[in-house]
Amino acid sequence: MKSLGTALGTVALLAFSTTALQAQQWATVKGRVVFPEDKPIPERKPLNVTQDKDHCLAKGPILDESMMVNPKNRGIKNVVVWLRPNDKDPKSKFLPSQIHPDFAKRKPAEIVIDQPQCMFVDRVTIAHPGDKLIVKNSSPVAHNFFWNSGNNGNYNVTIPKMDQWVMPQPLQFESPPIKYSCTIHGWMTGYVRIFDHPYVAVTDENGNFEIKNAPVGKFRIVFWHENGFLGGAAGRFGQEIEIKGPVTELKPTVFDITPRQ
Predict the structure, then answer these.
(1) pLDDT category of residue 261 using cuts at 50, 70 and 90
(2) Domains defined for the chain, CATH in brackets
């Protein structure tokens, strides 16, 4: 009986060790992106609204969204943050073992972009291959959706008021950002980035981001804003990072998002 008890104890210990090891394979990465302390916060100026003024300006002036910095804490909104392998090969991809199982089981999502008040919501959107893009027009005036891409077609469609348009094919992976606009209201623009892995996030109004179920180990983290990469062109390869479970909390990342002259 003693031998049986010892054997059962060993099996239980091995099972516990395996479970513990599996639990340590994934982590949550948290961070914050902030504007430099030594620079004045970019002013969000009113846009030049020239079409459908009664509707577009019904709630007041429309402010520029190309640089959204929180004046209270300098957090930057709409920075896309993602992980990549720890090298400088632009074709590198995560190994299958480094992709969390939940991503393989995910069902295609509906990625919705709306145009409620003569601005796109959201301005910056992340998606994955297989997702369906839906462009809504929840306003009382007609809008347009103009989109040119490498792998996801070219479109120039008018969307009647209180209607929507669905892209006819699922989204495919595309490395560069895809810019879209409304040709009826020329100040309206936005961006979609399509990733073939789950380790990506967009900063909120306080500059915060969170990437869940990331693999532990040494990787790189990339910061992109519509005005460019953190670190310029070389920044597309990101900065080295070591991820440890259960949570890796990074120091605030300083990012000057003002356009380069």
Answers:
(1) low
(2) 25-254 (2.60.40.420)
